[in-house]
Design a protein that fits this description.
Layout lengths: L2 H19 L9 E6 L2 E4 L15 E3 L16 H10 L5 E5 L2 H8 L20 E2 L7 H10 L5 E4 L3 E6 L2 H23 L9 H14 L1 H4 L1
Parallel strand pairs: 5-6
Antiparallel strand pairs: 1-2, 1-4, 2-3, 4-7, 6-7
The chain binds zinc ion.
């Protein structure tokens, strides 16, 4: 294994363990991947995040074929493969079952643009219709939900976030959970959020790009 690949594997594990420590992937849910020399590296099925070692990551080609013999990939590998095939801007993908965003997803409710930080996701966050985990149907729903966005909710399931680096995808996934908490607080208080308009969202997205926030966050 090259130094570059070893470092990439270590970073996938570090992000996975950070998500676990923050409670965003309860009970071994969720998965993390990033592009690699032969396709993409993805966390395996069924191994607790704290026990992950570099050799546990699976490497798949973008068409889903195993790039190297090795561990069984996450059951959601189709979703990752479909996103890498259709989104050249995605260098990494974080999928969580983070509690508050998943609560909204279980009500089939997306997140409206009530706070400027939603610009990290590229705009309002859709909630896509339910499909069984691990299926091509779910993969297709995720790709559609991400159209023009860096995050989407998946009904009765969770969150998927992309970025041009592992850190960026992690930051988007974390912000989706933060926004979901704020939105649920508004709803619980019976308050109607004041929404930002498209022009303001475009201004914030441009400012984030200017700061390099989307690339380095
Ligand atoms: Zn899942």
């Amino acid at each position: 294994m090259s130094d570059g690949e070893a470092s990439l594997r270590a970073r996938v594990i570090a992000i996975s363990q950070a998500l676990d420590a923050a409670g965003l992937v309860p009970n071994k849910s969720g998965n993390v991947s990033c592009r690699s020399a032969r396709g993409f590296l993805i966390t395996p099925s069924g191994i607790p995040y704290r026990d992950l070692t570099p050799g546990h990551l699976a490497e798949l080609a973008v068409d889903g074929e195993p790039a190297t013999a090795g561990p069984r990939p996450s059951s959601e590998w189709r979703m990752h493969a479909a996103i890498y095939a259709r989104r050249p801007d995605a260098a990494a993908i974080v999928h969580t079952h983070s509690p508050r965003a998943t609560a909204l997803a279980c009500a089939g409710r997306g997140i409206p643009p009530f706070h400027y930080m939603i610009a990290l996701a590229g705009g309002d966050i859709r909630c896509m219709p339910y499909a069984t985990f691990g299926t091509a149907e779910l993969a297709e729903a995720a790709v559609r939900g991400l159209d023009g966005r860096r995050a989407t909710l998946l009904a009765n399931h969770g969150v998927i976030a992309i970025g041009d680096s592992l850190r960026a995808a992690h930051a988007v996934a974390f912000e989706v959970e933060n926004l979901a908490a704020q939105y649920l607080t508004l709803l619980a208080a019976g308050l109607e959020p004041a929404l930002l308009d498209d022009a303001e969202l475009r201004r914030v997205i441009a400012k984030f790009a200017d700061y390099g926030r989307l690339a380095r966050c």
